[in-house]
Each structure stands twice: as structure tokens, then as C-alpha cells.
Amino acid sequence: MSNSNQKMFRSTLFLSSASLITQFLGMIYIIPFYSIMGGEENLALYGYAYTPYTIMLSIASAGVPGAVSKFVAKYNSLGAFQTTQKLYRSSLVVMLVSGLICFMVLYLLAPVIADIQLAASSDGEHVWGHDEITNIIRVVAFAVIVVPFMATWRGVFQGFESFGPTSVSSVVEQVVRITIVLVGSYVVIRMMGGTIQQGNQIAVFAAFVAAIGAIITLAVFWFKRKKLIEASLKEDKTGITLSYKEMYKEIILSGIPFVVIGITFPMMMFIDQLTHNNALAIVGVPSNVQDAWFGMLNITTQKLVMIPVSLAVSFSITILPFITKSFQQKKFNELEHQVSTMLLLQLTLVVPAAVGMMIMAVPLYTSFYSFSEMGIKILTIYAPVCIVISVFSMTASIVQGIEKQKFNVLVVLLVLVIKAALNFPLIMYFHTVGAVISTLIALFCGVMFNFFIIKKYGKFSFRKILTPMLEIVLYSLIMLLAVEIVYGLFVLSLDITIRRNAIITLATCVIVGSFIYLVVIFKSGLADRVLGERANKIRSKVRFL
């Protein structure tokens, strides 16, 4: 394995480990938070604020974090270290200014966004009104000031192929956020007799404080590595110099696809937000139920589904600098190996996770929230969607790496048009599950187009990974069969609608499923094709493999 691929694996390990930790913490904290807030309908307010916040955050960032990572990787590979320094210093200042401007825009537009949301809802009594939605959007707007700066600084580190700072800062960010969410909401609601609205406001404001914690962590890493980065400037003998105009022209052109990709999923959620309640009202679903189902769609089930998706995001972040470097140096064999390795590694983790979530939807949803037929139904359909979301993120990143980012814009527009066209009729026919189905169809079309672009312009043959992809599906089904047997035994002896029993069932089935899947992929040799020599290192430490 080349040094470049070894770095890619190590970087993936860093980011994946951090992602698993943050997602695990994100899973655990929702149990007490759900209890403090008292149900999905009370969490819906958070969802109404989160979607416009995410969209504005993408606009504030303007794709700069990803573009900076790509830019730094590109010019470092050429040895033009002074150019990269000039860029990352100015980009951090630009992101602070951009964050402040977008904060003010979101703060001032909050009443308008609340009106749009309410106008898109059906007539009737809803849990949350204009003032509540306006206030919580204004609270979460403060995070827009600092998050773009933080994300761009992470992009600088990633461009230097240094993923440790991103990993550690993301864990710090999550720990700080969860601490403030739980302690703050408990103190306000349970000890001070505050309202559910105030509890939600504490929860969203935690994003601002958590970002400050992440920035402090990145600063510590920066001062430790500053001497090494400055030493590289002396090695710059290229004579490459770019004006700010030339740099930011390249950054903007590279950044636009990052913005478009970054807002894809938030825009799909916003489409749900604008159509969900009206579509349900047309078919006679009561207005008080609509908010609860919306909370299940955009908050409770989404948090569970995003666990495996977060791994895909970490893979996408990891692979971009390496693909950019290989493409710039015209090492197409290495590029093909990187693409196939990362796709297979991603699917090896995400496919069994999706299959497991689908079959274990009842104990999974009950363990983290409470037994809910609709919540479980949504989660069952939502689980396999995480595969499509993951592959879409990865393939979009690859398209950018091979300098065909203009196609990203067209693909995302196609995805959003399909989602918007299908959402209303599918929600009317399948209720809330219809929103999930429209997301699945739209993203699947996007993945197919990305595959075509990569095949045509990246000189990549998907036939080489077709067999191992089929093996991943087969071994996931073997795992599924074993889990089904164990799950069936628990269902016969326990009432899994009770949280305690659901947790016992879930924990046992996860252990059994993970054990069987690991044994099968290692004994079959699939792990060797995906991990290379690292598979033997794992075998030496885990004897039964």
C-alpha cells in the first residue's frame, strides 16, 4: 500500500472514530432530552429552527471550508506553500465577516420564515405558533457567526492532510453541546419551572457555545503545529503566486458545488417542512398529530438514521484531498484504487447498519424514545435511505475531486426537482412515510448520475467493485437472518414495547449481528480486499477472525 493510501486509511480511521463517538453521544443524550422535553410534538419546534439555520449556514460558509481543503491540498501537492498560506489566512477573515452578515439576515428574516412555515401548514390548532418559531430561529442564528469560521479552519488542517484536529474538535464540540442541552434544559424546565419553548431555545443556543469550544481546540492544535507549517514555507521554490482575485475566483468556482451539495439534504427537509402538514391535512390527518409526525420525520428518526450517514460524511471529507492530489499529479491508477477502496469500505459499514436498523426498528425507536407505531414505521422505511445518502455524499465528493464540480450543481438541482415533484402526492398517499420515499427516489437518481460522471471523466470502471458489492449485500443478509432468529426469541418471551425490554433486545441483537458479520467478512476474504494488509493486523489482535 502506498504512503498516500496509508495516510488515507489513517485519516479515515481518525474521522470515523470521531464520528462514531459524536454520534454515540448524540444517541445517548436524546434519551434524557426526550424525557425532559416530553414527546415528539415538543421537539418539532427544534426542527422548525434547524432547517433554515442549516440552509443559512451553508450560504454563510459559501462552500469555503471544502474549497479551502481542496485548494490547500492542490497547491501543497505543487509545493506552493506560500500561496496556501495567503489563502487560508484571508479565508478565515472572510468567514468571520460572512458569518456576521448571515447572522443578521437570518435574525431579521426569522418572522418571515415563521410566516412561510405557518402558511405551508394546514388550518387548525398547532402546538407552535408564529412567535415561538420566530424566537427560536433568532436564538439559533447566533451559531451562524462562528460555525463557518470553525469549519474553514478544519478545512485548512484537512488540506494539510491532518485530520486529527478535525476529529478531536468535533468530539469536543459534541460534548460541550450535549452538556449545555441537558443541563440547561433540565434546569430551566424542571428546576426553574420554565417552558418547553425555553428548553428548546437552550438546546439550539448550545450550537453556538459548542462551536466556540471547537475553535479553542483547533487553536491549541494550530499553535502546536505552527512551526512545522511555517517551515514548509521555506521549501517553496515554485515561484507560483496568485492574486487575491485569482485565488477567490478559484475558491468561488470550487465553493459553489460545496454549497449546493451542503444544502441538498437541508433543502429536502425544507421541502418536507413546507408540504408535510398541508398534504396530511388534505387527507384528513388532525393538525395536532401533524406536528408530532413531523417531529418524528425531521428529528427523532433522522437522528438515528444519520448515525451511519455520519461515517459516509467522514469518508467524503477524507477522500477529497487525496483524490485531488492524485488527479493533479495524474496518478490515475492510484486514484482508481482510492475510489474503489473508499466506496467498498463505506458500503461494508453502512449496508449492514441500514439492514440492522430496518429489522430492529421496534426496539431501536422504543429504546431511545418510546413505543410509537408511526415512529417505528418511518424508521423502518428511513433506514435503507441512509445507504443512498451515504453513497450520494461520497460520489459527489469524488466528482469534485476529478474537477467536474460543475456537474454537482446540475445533479443536485435534479434531485431537488424530483423531491419537490413527488413529495406532496406521496405524503398524501403514504402519509409521513411518503416524504421518506420521495427522498429515496430523488437521491437514487442523483447517485446514478454521479456514477455516470465518474465513469466517463474519472476513467473508473465500476465492474471491478461489483462482485465485492454483491458480497457485502449477501453477508448483510446472512447477518440479518441470524439477528431475526435471536430477535424472534426475544419477541416470544418479552414485551419489547417496554423500554427496558427493548434495550435488552437491541443490545443483544447488535452484539450477535456484529459478531457474525465480522466473522463472515474476514473468513470470506472480503475484509482483505477492502482493508488490504490491515486485515491481517486486525486478525493478529482478534484471534477468532
Explain the overall architecture.
The two termini are 22 Å apart. The chain is mainly alpha-helical. The chain contains 21 helices and no strands.
Strand segment tally:
0
On the 0 to 100 scale, the average pLDDT is 80
Uncertain segments are: none
- C-alpha Rg, in Å? 23 Å
> Whole-Å distance between the termini?
22 Å
Counted by DSSP, the helix tally is 21
Proportion of strand residues:
under 5%
N-to-C SSE string, H for helix and E for strand: HHHHHHHHHHHHHHHHHHHHH
Largest sheet: none
Structural class of the secondary elements? mainly alpha
The percentage helix is: over 70%
Overall, the morphology is globular
Describe the structure concisely for a colleague:
The chain has 21 helices and no strands. With 545 residues, the chain is an all-alpha fold.
